[in-house]
Amino acid sequence: AQTIHQWPVAEIKAVGSPLSLGCTIKGKSSPNLYWYWQATGGTLQQLFYSITVGQVESVVQLNLSASRPKDDQFILSTEKLLLSHSGFYLCAWSPWTNERLFFGHGTKLSVL
Amino acid sequence: QQKVQQSPESLTVSEGAMASLNCTFSDGTSDNFRWYRQHSGKGLEMLVSIFSDGEKEEGRFTAHLNRASLHVSLHIREPQPSDSAVYLCAGDYGGSGNKLIFGTGTLLSVKP
Known about the structure:
With 112 residues, chain A is mostly beta strands. Chain A contains no helices and eleven strands. In chain B, strand 7 and strand 8 form a beta hairpin.
């Protein structure tokens, strides 16, 4: 069975500090991978997606970047956090050409 | 940028009574339309995906799509308290879930 693991579960960071959020999918080779973000009380927005190692497409610009260093790993990062980065970050995967999307449990980020 | 309007913002129904949720999209170019739900503190669970006008049933969940009116609805038959969650509609503008635009969500509460 496939599993998706996100880390950390929650993070409290200072404005201007760096950030790295991670996501690992086990049990599925070559998944499509996604990052989503939801501000408190806001709409869920897709940030990035990747269909293969080393390739990432940006959907929404939020001064964040993403990388896929391994087939089963997706990283979301920034050098300098903004207050507006606070919210809930969700990683997701889907099988290639399959419409189902499976989400991780998410990371709650508070930027102070 | 495509937008999705969801209504109502919140809905309370009694156990066993039909629950109906609605979404209106800013344009009909979406490849398909999906309904997800999110239990508190959890990731998203896809309920039903619909491509063609008409209806599609997945267990107790039935989606209705009318592309001409840019409207998609979700009907939950015999809801249970365990169905209490936030329900999100999404338009898939990239195909295969690569670019999902989500609605703002409907908080459904099912009373025993």
